[in-house]
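User: Hey, quick favor. My workstation is busy. Could you predict this chain's structure for me?
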Amino acid sequence: MVPKSTKKPAANKSSRLSPKIRTSKADAKQALIKATIKILDTQPITEITVQDISEEAGVNYTYINRYFKTNLNLFAEVTDALADIVKDKSFDAINKYIRKQKASPTNISVVELDQTRLTTLPIAMKRLWLVQYLVSSGVPADRFVAKSKESFESAVAIAEQLGFDRETARARIIYFITMTWIEASLTPFFGFTSEEINKSFALTFTDAIRK
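Assistant: No problem, here it is.
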């Protein structure tokens, strides 16, 4: 009789972390933050559960309580991550324009600048909606000040790289932030479509750049 094999069957490979595998605090936190960002694309924040997040992250749901204490703390750290994503994407886009200028000295067009805004707008909007939800849920608004200021100063630095003086750069970025907040906070109540909003903003954006 052939003896039975004592070799254990190979485990199914998965791109996610197994909930049974211990992972470091940093890795678990990053996995949960990335999972939340992904889920926000498909589910309203009010409907997202710890089970949804932990399943998407591939880690045990107890990590949320262990490392964030509450869902609100997790969502607050997600807003920080979203701010960093916007900053990184903006720098990447502007650096391409700067390299283009060095290769062939020309002014950056309004269309190119507006394209940079449109590239980061969905992420910025996601952060704004999340911040609004957290503030309405009792999280102090000043929790988001430091990261928001950091993002603002980074945007000003980018504008300065394109040739704007600091005062003008600050005015332009404040204008863009104001318009984004208006879009996130008010336009849904009027029933405007995204296309209508973007067309209107493109006109005001062009006027602002030309002044």
